[in-house]
Each structure stands twice: as C-alpha cells, then as structure tokens.
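Hey L., structure's done. Input below.
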Amino acid sequence: METMEGKFSVITIPNGIFMVNTYLVCNNENGNLLLVDPGDESGIIRNAIQKAGGDVTGIVATHGHIDHVYSAREFCEQYGLPLLVSKKDESLLRGLSIQSSLFGLPRVELPDSINYLHQEKTLPVRDFPAEILPVPGHTPGSLALLFEDKLLSGDTLFYESIGRTDLPGGSMEEILHSIKTELFRLEENTVVYPGHGETTTIGHEKTHNPFIQHPDL
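Output:
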C-alpha cells in the first residue's frame, strides 16, 4: 500500500514470519527513500526498493526487537549507511542472539555501524526531517516518527490495540502514558502506520481503542 499526499509518501511492505510492516518513506521532491524497520524477508524489501526507484539515504529502527532489525545489517552494508536506533534499546540489540534463540532463528548480526539516538527531536537524515516522538513502554527506546500527517508508530500503537508490554523492558504504565501524551496530542486525521497490521488514525484510536482509557480527551 502507498499513500501519495504531501511531501512524503509511505510504502508499506508486510513481510516475514512476524508479518512486520517494513516501510519505505519517499521524499516526493527528489525520490530519495528512508528504510524503516527492515524485516526478515530482504528479497521482498529489495524488490520494493527497486520498484520505488529512489536512493536509500537512511535506515531506521523504531525499536530494538529482532523483527524490526532482522535484515538491517544486510541493507546497511549494501548502502553504506549506519542503523539509527535509540540508545535506550542498545541492550536489546546487543542481545539479538538471545532473541534469535527464543524464536528458533539463525543468529542475527548487528550492523557494523550504528548511530544511537539520544534526545534528538528531529531525525538526522537529510531530506527526512521527521519529528522523533519518544514512546517508551513496548521497549525502553521505542520511537515514533512523524512525517507531516503520517505517523510511523512502531509497536506502540496498533489498529484498536497497543504493543506488548510483557517482554523485557516493557511497561504498561509507560506505554499508556506515551500514547496519551505523545501520540494523542497529534491531529485526529494523522494516519498511523503501525509495526504490524493495518493503518488507522489518531482520531479512530481515541474513540475505539479498548486499551486506552482517556476520560480527559
């Protein structure tokens, strides 16, 4: 699926055993691409990049779980780019071998080059100045990326659901606080592109998400 309104368009690439949504964000002014959350079916992702026809100028992970960084090393090597990810998820990334064994998967190697994000407010990728929203709860370093009226929410907010908080570093209290204070402040017509499943909007989730109690909204 692709949306084409505004300066940025978003291509959704469901793939892999986890059915993760890998995203290509396209800068419609110059055709450059941002790769977000590279999953485990790199061939499908590669085909989408070729079809889009632009140059990949940045690679980002919304958090450090294996399904969102599985093929990061491959694409970082191909394009000579570092992986951008929150410093707060460094321990998760360093434990990718543990995550691999938990799911019975081959060992996943980290990219040689990782640029850890600390308290940046804007994504440090030329042509992709997304607002970085810190949304801890699913993981300590979970990030959401806002491009105009398009939000890549990672595994924080889904269609009528929220991310898991029963994994190491997860917190139900934190994820609810993140959604209420960071995501629900956005315009209701903001389109939400989650890490798994179908798109939604902020307005829809305020009204229909059964996990969110928001009497003040």
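The two ends are 31 Å apart (CA to CA). The chain has a mean pLDDT of 94.

-- N.
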